[in-house]
Inverse folding.
């Protein structure tokens, strides 16, 4: 069955550019099969929402930003040059949309180096895994959006450094360095917390 | 506690990611074995690494796709112009048209002029007969520019101001 409803030359050209099977679905959407887009949304909504959530740190806002990004992508499908995977292109839109939302809300970025994590006095004593995770989340919230997103995408183990670079608009080498630095800062914060816990035992 | 260097930290992180070459890995393992400071630093980085590995994919609400597909036709691609920029552009276009109309009305463009084609340096072998003079009316040209400006103002008013404004109201009322 020929799923591509465009002239053969266009379909062949698209197939040659990348091997992304989703490009065939895009042809169907462009040909007017809107319900096919719902399938793409279902497939990518979790990652799109995760990216938006990591940036905005607020579920309703992240959902709105992710939806806006999907709508932008739908209306700009014709402009997608198909040199990359559709998902990478889509997540880049999600990333940019979430960043715009963040700036609109004037939530100022705080550098982790200039902030002190507040210790939970009630939780002193045995530091359980959940506590560690809680402190890690606090430290993560103080990273800038690009670092936090890069780190999240890296640990979701679904994206290569090159793809993370494309999504966040950075060079692959820069992404690697920033992921390294972010982990160092997080490790230092956790060490400080653990030392503090040990002292208060 | 002795502090590890940046390059050593990078190596330790590469080690945890499993991206170190075999020889480098063996070399680093020997260093770790020999130094308590490096071992402590590795454990600190490993704790962070293990916690980060527990990152989960966040799930949006159940009706995410349904809500999105309902919005998809009702919310076309956002206009690149904000309403504010549209208003500025409209004011600019109207001011230009107004100034041009004022200059026309005070008679700045009333003096007729001509373009003498014979003044153009063309070799004689190509010319069979003298070229005509073309009368140019500055007033007519400026009037055309004013008309084009008014047409442009109408388009700006419709596309960059009224359309986004009504769309916003429709979405707000939904």
């Amino acid at each position: 069955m020929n799923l591509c409803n465009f002239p053969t030359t266009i379909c062949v050209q698209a197939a040659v550019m990348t091997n992304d099977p989703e490009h065939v679905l895009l042809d169907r959407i462009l040909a007017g099969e809107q319900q096919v887009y719902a399938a793409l949304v279902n497939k990518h909504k979790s990652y799109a929402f995760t990216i938006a959530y990591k940036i905005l740190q607020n579920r309703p806002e992240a959902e709105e930003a992710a939806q806006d990004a999907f709508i932008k992508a739908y209306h700009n499908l014709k402009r997608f040059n198909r040199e990359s995977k559709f998902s990478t292109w889509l997540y880049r839109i999600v990333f940019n949309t979430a960043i715009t939302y963040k700036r609109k809300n004037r939530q100022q970025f705080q550098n982790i180096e200039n902030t002190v994590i507040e210790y939970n006095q009630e939780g002193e004593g045995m530091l359980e895994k959940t506590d560690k995770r809680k402190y890690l989340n606090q430290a993560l919230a103080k990273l800038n959006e690009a670092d936090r997103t890069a780190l999240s995408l890296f640990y979701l183990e679904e994206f290569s450094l090159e793809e993370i670079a494309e999504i966040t608009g950075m060079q692959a080498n820069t992404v690697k360095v920033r992921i390294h630095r972010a982990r160092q800062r997080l490790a230092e914060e956790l060490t400080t917390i653990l030392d503090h816990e040990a002292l208060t035992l | 506690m002795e502090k590890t260097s940046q390059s050593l930290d990078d190596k330790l992180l590469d080690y945890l990611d499993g991206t170190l070459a075999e020889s480098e890995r063996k070399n680093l393992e020997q260093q770790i074995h020999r130094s308590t400071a490096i071992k402590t630093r590795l454990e600190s980085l490993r704790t962070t690494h293990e916690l980060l590995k527990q990152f989960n994919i966040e799930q949006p609400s159940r009706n995410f796709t349904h809500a999105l597909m309902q919005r998809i036709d009702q919310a076309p691609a956002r206009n690149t112009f904000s309403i504010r920029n549209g208003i500025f552009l409209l004011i600019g276009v109207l001011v230009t048209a107004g100034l041009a109309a004022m200059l026309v009305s005070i008679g700045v463009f009333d003096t007729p002029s001509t373009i003498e084609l014979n003044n153009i340096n063309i070799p004689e072998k190509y010319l069979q007969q003298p070229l005509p003079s073309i009368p140019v009316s500055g007033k007519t040209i400026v009037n055309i520019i004013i008309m084009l400006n008014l047409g442009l103002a109408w388009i700006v008013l419709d596309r960059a101001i009224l359309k986004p404004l009504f769309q916003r109201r429709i979405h707000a009322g939904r």
About this structure: Residues 172-199 of chain A form the longest helix (28 residues). Chain A touches chain B through 37 residues (CB under 8 Å). Chain A has nine helices and no strands. The two ends of chain A are 70 Å apart (CA to CA).
